[in-house]
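Hey, weird one. I pasted the Cupin domain-containing protein sequence into the form twice and got a warning about non-standard characters only the second time. First submission, copied straight from the form history:
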Amino acid sequence: METSVKIVDKNEGELLGVAGGNYRIIISGDETDGNYAVIEMLVPPGGGPPTHAHPDTQEMFFLVEGVLEFKTEKGKTTVKEGGFINIPFGGAVHCFKNESDQIARMLCTVVPSGLEKVFQEIGSPVQHGKFLPVPELSEERKEFLRQIDEKYGQKTYPKNYLD
């Protein structure tokens, strides 16, 4: 692994359409010897991932702009600009959704890396400023996502699991 300082411009990094949002991999595990990855997430109104858990990954979010609703098994919380969320190791079930009419922007750090590889497999390349629709949840897509969960040691829950 290279030990020099890395500086990433705002237009650099792999940009993927994931869960209706745009996820930019700022630094991947391939660049950190697997220690961590950092992903910028732009979440449009109505956007957000399905309810899920990943016991072997700690996930930390810093909300740079906007408002998001985070749900866990302990309830739901509205997180505003400047808020921080820590999903510890152990598999806490969680999800988030943009219930506002503005795009939300978060920085997500995962320890160890690996979650960015999930995004690379389920996402599609996208241009800056464009948002792709969420892929139709066909039987083939459901099976593909189930295989991704199995491959990366995570679990996806039904839509209303935390309601």
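That's the output from the first submission. The warning seems to come from a hidden character in my clipboard, not from the data itself. The mean pLDDT is 95.
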